[in-house]
Specification:
With about 600 residues, the chain is mainly beta. Helix content is about 5%, strand content about 30%. Among the domains are: about 1-165, no CATH class; about 360-520, Type 1 dockerin domain; about 520-605, Immunoglobulin-like (Sandwich). A hairpin with a 5-residue loop joins strand 23 (about 310) and strand 24 (about 315-320). Helix 2 runs antiparallel to helix 4 (about 410-420). The N and C termini lie far apart (about 105 Å).
Length: about 600
Amino acid sequence: MNLLKSIVILNLTGFLLAVCPSGFYEDDCGNCWLPYCYDYVSHNVSYDSSESSCNGPTEMWVIPGDEGDPFFNNYCDSCPEGFTPDNCGHCWQGYCYTLFADPPHTVFWDLSETECIDAGYGFYPPGSSDGDPYFGYNCEGCPDGEIEDDCGVCNTGEDSPYWNMTCGDCNGDANGYAMVDDCGDCQLSYCYDYITHESNFDTPCDGATEVLVMPDSPSNPLWNSGCDPNACPDDQVEDCAGVCGGFAMVDDCGVCSDNYYCYDYVTHQTNTDFPCDGPTEMMVMPDSDYNSDWNASCTDCAGEVNGYAMVDDCGDCQSAYCYDYVTHQTNTDFPCDGPTEMMVMPDDPSNPYWNSECSGCAPGDVINDGSIDVLDVVAIVSYILGNNPLAPDVIDCADYVQDGSVDVLDVVAIVNIIIDGRITSSATEANLNINDNKVTLHANGFIGAVQMTISHDSNFSINLTNKAMVADYNTNGNSTSLIIVAPDSEELFYTSGNFIIEEIIVANEESYIPVDMPSEFMVSKAYPNPFNPSTSVSIYVPTNDFVNVSVYNVMGQKVATLYNGSMAAGNHIIRWNASNMTSGMYFIRTESKSDASIQRVSLVK
């Protein structure tokens, strides 16, 4: 192996605070991988190459995590051949190390143990040495049998030659004496000659008249020399007025109140001769109930300093007042000190003005007539369909289930109140059917509401069932939304024109239930039959399909092609105008890719 090849160089003391050692890449499993040079013909891998030297005709440089890298994130529970797991389950390989190469502390990954020893270097299997900087490197805590030294590095004990080897002081010196003082400055130790009064940093201090002065020594004039002379001592805190150990406080108005004083409760005199140690003295803090300056700059919603006005739930500013419980008169001549007067706060239960401007409707009572009935259901359905708006303060009453939106769940909850226990069985599933332009819904119990959105042609019309508590719809262009509340029959509506059901929601009296849509190709009976001169058939296509509709006479001859092409999923009406045909019997054949039907019709002129 060519030892002159560019190699990976690692400083053994320079990477111990990283997630992975310098030059390595960590994957999601916690493994650390080196980049390598890969020969995609010989499949040889070289870790001791550099990117610039990886330039052979069949060589490529691989960064861990590159597409096709077989190692990155692929060895979470095992290790590749030649690698050994440490106590954390992370994979490492042995390496060749020498202190005396140029530069020193050089690691070779590609040398075998024999090649390493023949070169005069040391070979280290994973975890074989206390000083192995890799094995167990990326673990949380120390492996069994090891403890953490003062540098935060795991070692076998204080007798290990590597104990505290990697520590650095604030000056970056391993096992140095530099310390950070109370001002945040890094101060150095130094040698002081007590005869010449000279100082130097040539440690150890082995001169005949030299002593070592530690950074925090009382005799070191530099310790804490850079601190702010106006800073508070460690046992005091600066208050909002900038006084060390002061009592000033920020009140509810955001103002720094520094009005604290000593009060003599006999003479009623005040002073600031702290501490308040007179026999009849007490200290009045800024936030004391007795201190008139506290919150003096605050204003209530009426603009009064330290006033009592409050904003109620309707957003209105309500004032406090004085109430005479004998004369029943009110006034705002505070304080309320009349012999029969009492103060009524804005939010007092006896204050008739509090929340007086709010909407009076109760949940569900949308029209606010004092009862919950079908009129409220009609109003909510009309709002959901967009036919009629609701006032903002009434929308909250319509949101009966209080989920933040007004929808069919609010409708069925109110229906449940109106029906009041008359439901014998709630539906848990339903099936929708489309036949002869009629849409029906079969369910296994009570249906509270059906909401549907359908798209259609411009010549579309719809007739909703009249056997329901409420049935309403809104058409906007080629889209119709409808809601049918508590239908009393399976028939929902019938239509004229082609349509597609875009969305359907069905609920019982408390929740949504699943709906099975038609899954088969269906053709209705022609209507009218007999006819003159036109008749129609309704075709339901569950998914987009190719459809052909043709008319044949009794001789089997095709006399008309009514439709031939792709047909979108949904319901379609095909009409035959036979005004140019003679009276007689004809056959309409409807055919899709999966099904076909033939029906007989009679033209009578």
